[in-house]
Design a protein that fits this description.
alpha/beta; Rossmann fold; 2 domains; 5-stranded mixed sheet; about 35% helix; globular; Transketolase_C; Transketo_C/PFOR_II; EC 1.2.4.4
Length: about 325
């Protein structure tokens, strides 16, 4: 581990690399594998230098076979290891879907608690980097529906490092989505000492009293821009970063909405069966009497990710502001 005493300003992908290195060093049961994660260091260089540092027995490449990658991770986890498997893009997880749904998510319950599957699936997710149809999707809602799996998506370097370390130490499987458009764009202070961020706790990025603006992952900078634009017009916006989708922080969200009376939910996944629909239902069911307007939602469209028109597809600050104005004027 690093011995620096003071926090440093690093970007999100550097925070991921640090978390991986520190967990490999801390626990000999941790292994890291996936397509090109070894000598090349991954397509986004998140694992650069780790094979050289920890050896080919603990950081190694795999064939282009996601079903085998996930299946191997499940087997290793059940046998007492702490595998971290990288899927090169979230769009590619499909061949390993059954391994997650039928094995990783069920083993604790199926065995009556005799076995667990403490594995982490790391994967770059979302659009905004001109990746095209098969490199830009946001499929997190599929995994939120798998009872038994935790789902995490950070938006800051501090959270990326702390949540990834918490995921590795969890006794349950964790889907760890990394918003690729924030890999180098998101920068912030990160402690050099060992720390974790609790999975299931949201963060208030900005306090406000007129409207609750709630998101996670790659859209968070757009929420901040929208809040700035509304602040210039005298609107006080509370910005909440969920950070974790399963479990998610119901108490904090409800507390915020009960204070402001309005909520706008933002994500870049397609609108149909979007995870934020669960948040909207909970707000309506448990904070209905506090609402001054219907819960608003800004999301991607129900189409394959458009390579050419990604700026239209992604929920930018303008679409978010429009949804907030609609709620405020209701």
């Amino acid at each position: 581990m690093t011995t620096q005493a003071e926090p440093r300003t690093i970007n999100l992908i550097q925070a991921v690399t640090e978390a991986l290195a520190e967990e490999l060093e801390r626990d000999e049961r941790v292994v890291l594998f996936g397509e090109d994660v070894g000598a090349r260091g991954g397509v986004f260089m998140a694992t650069a230098g780790l094979q050289e540092r920890f050896g080919k027995g603990r950081v190694f490449d795999t064939p282009l076979a996601e079903g085998s990658i996930v299946g191997a991770a499940v087997g290793m986890a059940v046998r007492g290891m702490r595998p971290i498997a990288e899927i090169q893009f979230a769009d590619y997880i499909g061949p390993g879907f059954d391994q997650l749904l039928s094995q990783a998510a069920k083993i604790r319950y199926r065995s009556g608690g005799q076995f667990t599957a403490p594995l982490v699936i790391r994967t770059p997710s979302g659009g905004g980097v001109k990746g095209g149809h098969h490199h830009s999707q946001s499929p997190e809602a599929y995994y939120c529906h798998m009872a038994g799996i935790k789902v995490v998506m950070p938006s800051t370097p501090y959270d990326a490092k702390g949540l990834l370390k918490a995921a590795v130490r969890s006794d349950d499987p964790v889907m760890f989505f990394e918003p690729k458009r924030l890999y180098r764009a998101a920068k912030g202070e990160v402690p050099s000492h060992d720390y974790t961020v609790e999975i299931g706790k949201a963060a208030i990025r900005r306090e406000g009293s007129d409207l609750s603006l709630i998101g996670y992952g790659g859209v968070m900078p757009d929420l901040e821009k929208a809040a700035d634009a509304l602040a210039a017009e005298g609107v006080s916006v509370e910005v909440i970063d969920l950070r974790s989708l399963v479990p998610w922080d119901r108490p904090l969200v409800l507390q915020s909405v009960e204070k402001t009376g309005r909520a706008v939910l933002v994500s870049e996944a397609p609108r149909m069966a979007n995870f934020m629909g669960e948040v909207a239902y909970t707000i309506q069911n448990e904070a209905f009497d506090s609402l001054s307007a219907p819960v608003g939602q800004v999301a991607g469209f129900d189409t394959p990710y458009p390579y050419i028109q990604d700026k239209i597809y992604l929920p930018g600050a303008n679409r978010i502001v429009a949804a907030c104005v609609k709620a405020l004027n209701y």
